[in-house]
């Protein structure tokens, strides 16, 4: 049976592709998309989620806006990578036409959507896939602690075992709201951390883009327009010739466990370090204790991963919307 998931995100170029992978995969039943302030403000990432849903014909999926700021710290954003819109380089459908296309925003708060969806299903049915800052997930666990024992697992994109990106030691999603990350890692549910050690292997090379281009249609055009802008931003940093697509990796793990190698390890989030705030500290010194509920992703089967992405995009076909180039 397809795995029922809630995708919590902050679109974001790679979030958009994660949405498309989740919607296009026959192995996933995408119940809801909840948004959180992260790559851009809540208003902008929610607008992007609705636009991507329209292009992909994502009807029947609940879309709800969640938290507009971290628990404690000020919003930091990632406009330098994702542009002022959050989806630099991509022109999405006119918001005015979305209701007519069957795409609308649920009036409930995203945190309540998470809680109500988990509580309405049997124990172990729902997988949470947060690929932005963890504010919504932490808030849901605090507001309704019973969801912790009901969720099958949390598969998150964030952190890193040996590296950071926003700082030398911290990955953006964790640094954006480290207190929420602490809550999520310590809640007691199974957590798989798909961090930078893994996602930096998922590079959108010319060969990958050529495969996507062969699909044709608005969905593929959205992906290629986004990758073009996203890749240019990464090249400006001098760190990557081809952009790493972080967020689809977490969704890919839900689709196919064999796409990556993981290792069980205790993970803690640094909350007070002067130079290490937001660092995910994974203890790999020894075999994990028997009660360890966290694991970290380390090695990606790159070909298998891109096969999953391309197959999902091809399954979406022409979608229902139009997409084009826009300035960053």
| Number of separate domains | 1
> What proportion of the residues form beta strands (DSSP E)?
15-25%
Give the end-to-end Cα distance, rounded to a whole number of Å: 41 Å
**Quaternary state of the chains:** single chain
InterPro entries: I/U_nuclsd_hydro_CS, Inosine/uridine_hydrolase_dom, IUNH, Ribo_hydro-like
Keywords: Glycosidase, Hydrolase
Pfam families: IU_nuc_hydro
Protein name: Ribosylpyrimidine nucleosidase
Question: Could you outline the blueprint of secondary structure elements for this entry?
Answer:
Elements: E1 3-9, H1 13-24, E2 28-35, H2 42-56, E3 62-65, H3 79-82, E4 90-91, H4 110-120, E5 126-130, H5 135-143, H6 147-150, E6 153-157, H7 172-176, H8 178-186, E7 191-194, H9 196-199, H10 206-215, H11 217-237, H12 247-255, E8 260-264, E9 267-269, E10 280-282, E11 294-300, H13 302-316, E12 324-325
Parallel strand pairs: 1-2, 1-5, 2-3, 5-6, 6-7, 7-11
Antiparallel strand pairs: 4-12, 8-11, 9-10
Helix pairs in contact: 1-2, 1-11, 1-12, 1-13, 4-5, 5-8, 10-11, 10-13
